[in-house]
Amino acid sequence: MNNLRTVADVLEKSSRPLLCGHIMPDGDSLGSVLALGMGLQSVGKEVTIVSSDPLPDLYRFLPGIDEIVVGSVPDRKYDLLVVVDCSVPERLGSTITPTVDSGLPVVVIDHHVNDQPFGHHNYVRSSAAATGEIIMELLELLGVSINLDIAINLYTAIVTDTGSFRFENTTPETHSKAAELVKFGVPVSRLSNLIFGEQPLKSIRLLEAALNSLEVSDCGRIAWISIDRDKIDALGAEDQHIEGLISYPRKIKGVELAISFRELDKQKVKVSFRSKYTVDVNFLAKKFGGGGHVRASGCTIQGTLQEVKEVVLKEAQEIFRGC
Ligand code: 5GP
Ligand code: MN
Ligand code: MN
């Protein structure tokens, strides 16, 4: 792994970088890629940002979001691929993953737990609460002056990945970086409302369905919800409306491990894990080919909803010695 100065040097030498984050983009992925894109543009780079997946409506307020190209990588000349907030090439999405092996030099800037990061150059710091924290340091190394637009993007990256500074990943460093960003005029209360305070009706309807599916293990340490495809389709809901539902089983007093099962199709289920104090859910997700962080992770498993629930719950119950 490189140090951040090396990554800054590689970026300085590039003139036409292609930037991207991960599939099902979240606040950290989008805020980081936009802040870095704006910063690089301000020092004269010709920047292109691409997302394989559509952008959630929730993040429409992010400055510069309309500049992101959704879908295929535009047919332009690039001299560098810069990947942020993504630990494995597969999570770049079908339109971008092939670019990793296209001969273009690749730089990865990330904070997921990962002992084998990809890319010709990479900087991974799993102690950073958000990739946005690392991007903020990188911009300083690049001599970029932070403005309000960049500050809003970085603040959003940090506030979303820390669940508004409530998760265990929040450090003194996270707070001091956020405080520095607020000095640029970030409208904290307005952002808080946009991100956490309001949701479209279909999200609430989906929550209703999710809570109806809620189950808790006999010992009370594991709680899970299941959302089937038919329900998602009937409500016209998308990924963006499902994100966040897992916080409900996690909220239950005594629950250490929360799981959400989301049917992607009849043979594929997306599983999300969250823990509170002790369970290493990155380790758990890795058993099923996924990953993430110690307290938040995920994976996609082949099988019907029922089959996937059985295999995952068996593994989860082992952690609590058959609970
Ligand atoms: P979520 O459950 O919200 O989709 O993801 C929680 C965390 O786990 C995020 O940091 C995300 O990047 C990571 N994650 C989710 N699904 C996967 C996966 O299939 N593979 C890997 N490597 N990480 C994942
Ligand atoms: Mn992310
Ligand atoms: Mn992140």
Automatic annotation (TrEMBL):
GO molecular function: nucleic acid binding
Record-annotated DHHA1 domain positions: 236-320
Pfam family, one: DHH
Domain DDH: 19-155
Family matches, as InterPro entries: DDH_dom, DHH_sf, DHHA1_dom, Oligoribo/pAp-PDE_c-di-AMP_PDE
Protein name: Phosphoesterase, RecJ domain protein
Organism of this sequence: Desulforamulus reducens (strain ATCC BAA-1160 / DSM 100696 / MI-1) (Desulfotomaculum reducens)
